[in-house]
Write a structure and sequence with these properties.
The chain is mainly α and 340 residues long. It is built from twelve helices and no strands. The termini are far apart.
Length: 340
């Protein structure tokens, strides 16, 4: 029953995709509305507040140490195997391959490069912003901490903010950003939020990140998603340039070689309209020999010449020879004369 329900849901998804236009003339691009601008401003303020709280070694750093000393991976050892697999949903390589496969299929179906270019722009923006923050702050992780109670900043580390968390927010959130309907966008937004939340908590459970690293990773990934509409003009220009390059390449490539010309004076075999080939052959002039004719095209497979087929009479019929019919050029046998 579960398999049938899953197949039914997949059929509904594919049917909805079939109703989408192959290449829409106008793409509904999310715009920077007031709500989005307000959310972007609030997220940026939260990002700066987390950085300030860690730099000044405030209560947030003390909370980081308390969680580290609690050692969740020792308190709940039964779920360690599950968390080891679940945290892969935040790794950049596997998640990028999975999402790129889905968006590549959508690009092929809709004849547009926007899904793939949007994914590439989001990952590039994520690597630049998060990578620069990691190298700039240089915070060490819980397993490499040197002084109890310190913020471990500027010591050559690269875990602040959490790259797993930010990557999970961007990679799975891009599916909601490119959704074709508001309802699908809401559902995918909820799924991506829960997934990224679980990935962040998994890194804290394993002890690879401080709690503040995860908070800053959520903010960093959300900032990338909120800033994507500013990249749409560049994505559109890139798509137009790629399609123009493809059209110029196709124009230079020859479509096919021209057909070879027949020699001058060679007879041309015209296919008769009649469905009886032997009847048309019977009306051909006797002066034209078969060897002088151009060879007709034959489909692949074993074929036999006309001489190897059933014997043909001078008028072109396929009636089988009778016993009392002599070959042409021999005298006919005398018939018996009966008495009167």
């Amino acid at each position: 029953m579960r398999t049938e329900r899953t197949l039914t849901r997949l059929d509904r998804v594919f049917a909805r995709l079939d109703r989408e236009p192959e290449r829409p003339a106008h793409i509904d691009v999310p715009k920077m509305s007031r709500h989005r601008v307000a959310l972007l401003t609030g997220t940026l303020a939260f990002y700066l507040a987390i950085v300030w709280a860690v730099v000044t070694t405030s209560w947030l750093v003390r909370l980081d140490w308390q969680v580290m000393f609690f050692r969740p991976y020792q308190q709940w050892q039964g779920i360690h195997w599950f968390v080891d697999y679940y945290v892969v949903l935040g790794q950049r390589g596997p998640t990028a391959v999975m999402v790129a496969a889905w968006l590549g299929w959508r690009s092929w179906r809709q004849h547009t490069l926007r899904p793939m270019l949007t994914l590439g722009a989001s990952l590039l923006l994520l690597n630049i912003t998060v990578g620069a923050a990691k190298l700039g702050m240089g915070r060490l992780g819980p397993h490499y901490a040197t002084t109890i109670g310190s913020n471990e900043m500027g010591l050559g580390g690269d875990i602040f903010p959490s790259g797993h968390t930010a990557n999970a927010v961007v990679t799975w959130g891009i599916l909601a950003y490119l959704a074709s309907s508001p309802r699908t966008r809401r559902w995918l937004s909820a799924v991506s939020a829960v997934t990224s939340l679980g990935v962040g908590m998994a890194t804290v459970y394993l002890g690879t990140h401080w709690l503040s690293d995860v908070l800053l990773g959520w903010a960093a990934g959300l900032l990338v998603l909120l800033a994507l509409p500013w990249c749409e003009p560049l994505i559109t220009r890139a798509e137009t340039a790629i399609f123009d390059l493809r059209d110029r390449w196709r124009a230079r490539t020859p479509v096919g070689a021209p057909a070879p010309a027949l020699p001058v004076g060679a007879p041309v075999l015209v296919k008769p309209h009649s469905t009886a080939p032997d009847e048309a052959a019977a009306h051909e002039p006797a002066s034209v020999s078969r060897s002088a004719r151009a060879p007709a095209y034959l489909a692949p497979g074993p074929h036999t010449t006309r001489a190897e087929r059933t014997p043909v009479t001078p008028v072109g019929s396929r009636r089988p020879p009778h016993a009392d019919r002599a070959p042409r050029g021999t005298p006919a046998p005398a018939r018996p004369v009966t008495g009167a």
